[in-house]
Specification:
The structure holds two protein chains of two kinds. By secondary structure, chain A is mostly helical. Chain A is built from 14 helices and no strands. In chain A, helix 2 (18-39) packs antiparallel against helix 13 (254-264), helix 6 (98-115) packs antiparallel against helix 7 and helix 7 (122-134) packs antiparallel against helix 8 (144-174). Chain B is α+β, with helices and mostly antiparallel strands. In chain B, helix 1 crosses helix 3 (35-44), helix 5 packs across helix 6 and helix 6 runs antiparallel to helix 7 (120-138). Chain B is built from seven helices and four strands; from the N terminus they run ααααββαααββ. Classes of the chains: A mainly alpha, B alpha+beta.
Chain lengths: 287, 164
């Protein structure tokens, strides 16, 4: 009962996670810049007349308004969305118009991502979802409704991360490769998701790779529960950072790793130097 | 009931609805069936779509390759090999993304052919267009004559070939 009351009241408590939200926004900006840098050298193939992502022929005004880069006749609109996504994200970081810029950033970024969908990873989907939740948030708005929206958006970002791990773990459990302990080795055999040095080292499945497979599976199963305990949070996040560092460098899914690092900012413990006074309030709202 | 509790209930209601739909939309069909994801898709599309890319359940088992045969006699290039060499060296840049697109499209083509489903010719046409555009970008001085798609299962050593 106490837990339920605590959760109910948490939506009205002063918002104490401005530090996390600031770094989330900076992380999203870093992701958008990284994405832009990767595609800058091949605009025609990414979002121009020769684009790799064929038209999906979306219908309905709402859907169509998020697929404005379909049927591209030139790269111009792609450039406009690319530049605007970075500018609007900067606007949300630097100005007080965080919700307005957040909404604009979500709109232009969604359009850009949807226009390059074949080139995207899961990281793009995650960033798109974070951008949606950030629409609700303005850390500087301390009104009653503002606080409610801040709490709602922030909880949604955290729950999105939890949901991702939960569903990922469920897929792994109903599949074969993860339970048999072969998944990581099998992945490393695929040139796209490996490195020559890893393929040379792990020609056969080893106890070490099986342990890594079960560690990842266990991590994903436990994350949705354990992450809510403040005392275990930092350790869990550090293990996750190592896993996603391997996914980024070893498997080459850099954008996905980057998006996960961004998501982790919502759970990262606030440095003591950034804590608002009284500190006891922070501790009570944290969980 | 206090205003605080009303706001709390509203917040929990909104989050439950949103993540409830998201769960039924993206969870494995073995657990939620096929009807619930269909219903949930009306809510989750287009804004809240999350597919296997985000969850990467089963690792792929095939390496795919695009062989580009140019008009110059005896000159061929292996496109994925070329793209992956760059991707392995730098880890950033567009090469890894394009090779990923080819791997994903080839995996889909392979699946469609094996299950004798429609869409094979359409997908082959798209792969042809993509390979041609990439060839023009990476080898602008050469003229493309033919494209052959290869696949190899690293565990069973089984191979496949499609001529485009």
């Amino acid at each position: 009962m106490r837990l339920i009351n605590n959760i109910l009241e948490s939506f009205s408590r002063p918002f104490m996670h401005s530090w996390n939200v600031k770094w989330l926004r900076i992380g999203v900006l870093a992701f958008l810049v990284f994405n832009a840098m990767e595609l800058l050298s091949v605009p025609e193939l990414a979002f121009g007349t020769q684009k790799a992502s064929p038209s999906l022929h979306q219908s309905g005004w709402l859907t169509a308004s998020f697929y404005l880069l379909e049927d591209q006749k030139s790269t111009l609109l792609g450039w406009v969305f690319l530049i605007l996504s970075v500018i609007t994200c900067l606007g949300a970081i630097l100005t007080s118009w965080k919700r307005t810029f957040g909404l604009l950033c979500f709109f232009v970024t969604s359009n850009f991502f949807n226009g390059t969908y074949m080139l995207n990873s899961g990281g793009h989907q995650l960033i798109q979802l974070f951008l949606f939740y950030l629409i609700f948030m303005n850390e500087e708005d301390e009104s009653e409704v503002g606080t409610f929206l801040n709490q709602l958006g922030f909880k949604a970002i955290r729950l999105q991360l939890v949901m991702m791990y939960l569903i990922s773990a469920l897929y792994k459990i109903v599949g074969e490769s993860w339970l048999s302990g072969n998944a990581v080795w099998q992945t490393l055999q695929i040139d796209q998701y490996s490195l020559p040095i890893l393929q040379d080292t792990f020609g056969e499945n080893t106890v070490f790779l099986m342990m890594i497979t079960y560690l990842v599976l266990t991590y994903q199963l436990l994350f949705p529960v354990v992450i809510w305990f403040a005392s275990w949070r930092k350790s869990i996040l550090i293990i996750g950072l190592l896993i996603h560092l391997f996914i980024g460098v070893g498997m080459g899914l850099v954008s996905f790793a980057l998006a996960m690092f961004v998501g982790y900012m919502s759970f990262w413990p606030i440095p003591s130097s950034e804590l608002r006074k009284p500190a006891s309030n922070v501790a009570s709202t944290d969980d | 009931m206090t205003k605080q509790r009303k706001l709390g209930l509203l917040g929990i209601f909104l989050l439950t609805i949103h993540f409830g739909f998201t769960f039924f939309y993206s969870a494995p069909y073995q657990l939620v069936g096929t009807q619930l994801p269909h219903w949930a898709s009306h809510y989750n599309l287009p804004l809240f779509h999350q597919n296997w890319n985000l969850f990467a359940p089963e690792p792929p088992q095939w390496n795919y390759e695009v062989e580009l045969i140019f008009q110059e006699e005896k000159y061929t290039q292996y496109l994925c090999h070329e793209l992956l060499e760059r991707h392995h060296a730098y880890r950033v840049g567009p090469s890894g993304r394009f090779s990923m697109v080819i791997q994903n499209l080839m995996a889909t083509l392979h699946q469609l052919v094996e299950q004798q489903q429609p869409g094979v010719e359409q997908l082959k046409a798209h792969l042809h267009r993509l390979a041609k555009n990439l060839a023009e970008t990476y080898y602008p001085e050469r003229k493309l004559a033919r494209i052959i798609l290869w696949g190899r299962n690293k565990q069973t050593e089984e191979e496949l070939r499609y001529d485009l």
